[in-house]
Amino acid sequence: MNRDLKTRRSLLCLAGLCALPLPVLAAQESTLAKIRREGFIRVGFANEAPFSYADSSGRLTGESPAVFRHVMKELGVAQVDGVLTEWGALIPGLRAGRFDAIVASMYITPKRCKQILFANPTYGVGEALIVRKGNPDRLHTYADAIAAGKKIAFIAGTAEIGHARLAGLEAGQQLIVPDFAAAVAAVKSSRVSAAALTALTAGDLASKDAAIERARPFTFAHAGKTYRGEGSFGFRLQDTSLRDAVNEQLKRFIGSEQHLAMIAPFGFDRSNLPELSAEQHCAGN
Questions:
Q1: Interhelix angle for 31-38 vs 240-253, to 10°?
Q2: At what angle do helices 199-207 and 180-188 cross, to 10 degrees?
Q3: 12, 56, 268, 285: which is deepest, by most CB within 10 A?
Q4: Residue 3 pLDDT > 80, yes or no?
Q5: How many alpha carbons lie under 13 Å from residue 122 in its C-beta half-sphere?
Q6: DSSP assignments along 52-95, one per residue
Q7: CA atoms of 100 and 83, how far apart (whole Å)
Q8: SS3 call for 115
Q9: DSSP 3-state assignment of 260?
Q10: Using CA atoms in the order 218, 133, 181, 41, what is the torsion angle rounded to 10 degrees?
Q11: Per-residue pLDDT reduced to its tens digit, 102-153
């Protein structure tokens, strides 16, 4: 036994742990155990109101952080620290260990399920377009944009890109931007005729800027299916114990009067309650 190993063994014995084999002691604890021991968890978010964003004081807030904080408190984790990240970098950041969860109301899709674990959904919502005031190009469907040869902006990594492709929108009619501010700027400067977002995000952005509005009505259906996204928290593939513990808390909480009161200030109500499980979404239902 070399000197370093002897020293390490002696220190373990002083701590009362020398009976345990070194490989067992060296094994990493689970993320759930780690966050419970440390009392905090770092989470990635992408500044999308009303889902997950930093308020004027810099505090992480929105539907997703409110529900996540409740769940973490029930699991004995008192502090949730946000790490601001571009939307398209959320999954890579999680997998690289920059944070231990994605708390950005991310839609659960089969493609994403191959990369990360999802908790069961906390909400459901349709999508929408933001357009210049008065909707000068008269866009109410992706088909309208296709027929008129108009361009639409999309946030990198969002589900709306896939929906538009299903509708037949060619790559030349898509402008991929890094964040929501860039999408609004593209609409206002007429670089695009619209930007595709969730309905709640579109409504929130339009309420803050008189130069844009939410296109009403807006519909998207494909093969007889009207698309409604449902989103939740994301975890690394190996963090099954954390995902399972979160799901157990969500089962008790989602749809309760306490939950509905919590999400009401962010514009969510009973109509936004989820209809499917994460497993169903991952299977493409």
A1: 70
A2: 60
A3: 268
A4: no
A5: 32
A6: BEE-TTS-EESHHHHHHHHHHHHTT--EEEEEE--GGGHHHHHH
A7: 10
A8: coil
A9: helix
A10: -50
A11: 999 999 999 999 999 999 999 999 899 999 999 999 999 999 999 999 999 9
Cβ(104)–Cβ(87) below 8 Å: yes
Angstrom distances, CA of residue 140 to CA of 97, 125, 128, 144, 163: 40, 17, 9, 6, 14
pTM of the model: 0.78
Give the type of residue at 22.
L
CATH 3.40.190.10 domain extents, the chain: 31-124+231-273, 127-226
In the prediction, which pLDDT does 27 show? 56
β-bridge pairing 101-107 and 229-235:
antiparallel
Task: Report pLDDT for 104.
Answer: 97
- Per the structure block, which two tokens stand in for 191? 């670089």
Question: What CATH number labels 31-124+231-273?
Answer: 3.40.190.10
- With tokens 């037949």, the residue in question is 168
Return the CATH number of the domain spanning residue range 127-226.
Answer: 3.40.190.10
pLDDT tens, 16-64?
444 444 444 335 899 999 999 999 999 999 999 999 999 999 999 999 9
Length of the chain: 285
User: Above pLDDT 90, what percent of the chain?
Assistant: 83
